[in-house]
Amino acid sequence: MISDQAAATTTEEDVLQEIIWQEIKQSGGRISFARFMELALYHPEHGYYLGSRRKPGRGGDFITAPEATPYFGHTLARQVAECWERLACPDRWTIREYGAGVGGLAYDIMAALATNHADAFSGLTYHLVEPNQFSQQEAL
User: Fold this and answer.
1) Biggest alpha carbon–alpha carbon distance for the chain
2) 3-class secondary-structure state, position 93
């Protein structure tokens, strides 16, 4: 447990570490790796991806390929269009992107589809799944 004196200098990471340790103790000394990652990344108050400060992206802790260049999304759009064709070109279809952040990859994929594969784009519903309420607000 964190003492009152130590609480003044306790970081958010310290608090999360204590939460994880308590869960390990309560479960008899072990938790699954999946549960550990769920707590570390998506704890409602202290999870890495659920904070108000944008951590991934330019100016953050790291950058991913979709944030570095639109070409990643454009390349995926070609593959998505091929999948659409293999599905016999349905009139209505959905892409569901998990961990979508602020929607940069979605934007690049949809822009490339609209430009190069208009038939596929016309029936597309693109659904962003993002548990971070702050990222959801940025995407609006």
Assistant:
1) 65
2) strand
Residue with tokens 């593959």: 79
- Tell me: the pLDDT tens digits for 124-136? 999 998 877 766 5
Contact 66, 104 (CB under 8 A): yes
Burial of 68 (0-12, 13-18, 19+ CB in 10 A): exposed
Q: What confidence tens digit (pLDDT) does each residue in 26-61 have?
A: 999 999 999 999 998 888 888 887 766 656 566 667
Q: Containing H/E element for 4?
A: helix 4-7
Q: Beta strands of the chain (E only): which ranges?
A: 93-98, 124-129
Q: Which amino acid, 31? A: I
Cβ neighbours of 84 (radius 10 Å):
20
Taking Cα atoms as reference points, which of 131, 138, 135 lies closest to residue 44? 131
What is the CB neighbour count within 10 angstroms for residue 120? Answer: 21
